[in-house]
Design brief:
Structural class: alpha/beta
Number of domains: 2
Strand order of the largest sheet: 1-6-5-2-4
CATH superfamily of the largest domain: Rhodanese-like domain
Shape: elongated
CATH topology of the largest domain: Oxidized Rhodanese, domain 1
Low-confidence stretches: 42-51
Helix content: 25-40%
Radius of gyration: 24 Å
Number of strands: 7
Largest sheet: 5 strands, parallel
Number of helices: 6
Strand content: 5-15%
CATH architecture of the largest domain: 3-Layer(aba) Sandwich
Order of helices and strands: HEHEHEEHEHEHE
Mean pLDDT: 83
CATH class of the largest domain: Alpha Beta
Distance between the termini: 76 Å
């Protein structure tokens, strides 16, 4: 019985010390809210070169969507690269804030496919995240990016962004 009482006293003393230290902390934990680790924050555990948070879509899966015009395609590369060649019907949206006119165009589609020129897809991931932040739910990143699209002989065209206006791009040129 003595050991049980000592255990209870030690537990109570530890709890009191913990509460006192929390109250004295410059950033005390709110005891009424669940505690979340920093690793649970979006993108917190993303390693360089690791797959991003957007689901991937292969060229083989994306090509029929392009041909049927049932998905929107977003090119996250520079305006110069976009003008040199891009997926048929794609619009140019570089990383950064997504302009309203781009959102108005994209909201007509259930699926949005974002790509860039890098197999690591860092720019495409950034644009995909911005689109998800603006309420788009089915945003995917093209696996293998523009290079895989070209290698597969999928439909492409060149020239400035027609939807954006002659020579203009959504978000400004880069």
């Amino acid at each position: 019985m003595r050991i049980l009482l000592q255990s209870l006293a030690l537990t109570a003393a530890g709890a009191a010390a913990g509460l006192a230290m929390n109250a004295a902390s410059p950033r005390p934990a709110r005891l009424s809210e669940p505690v979340r680790s920093a690793a649970e924050a979006a993108g917190a555990c993303k390693l360089p070169g690791a797959a991003g948070v957007a689901p991937r879509i292969t060229v083989q899966e994306a090509t029929p969507l392009c041909i049927a015009c049932s998905a929107a395609f977003v090119d996250a590369r520079s305006a110069v690269d976009f003008a040199a060649g891009h997926v048929v019907g794609a619009i140019h949206v570089p990383p950064g804030p997504v302009p309203l006119q781009a959102l108005l165009h994209l909201e007509r589609f259930r699926t949005v496919v974002v790509y860039d020129g890098d197999p690591g897809s860092a720019q495409a991931e950034a644009v995909a995240a911005a689109l998800r932040d603006r309420g788009m739910t089915d945003v995917r990143v093209l696996a293998g990016s523009w290079g895989a699209w070209q290698a597969a002989g999928a439909p492409g065209e060149s020239g400035p962004c027609a939807t954006c206006g002659t020579g203009l791009t959504f978000g400004g040129g880069r």
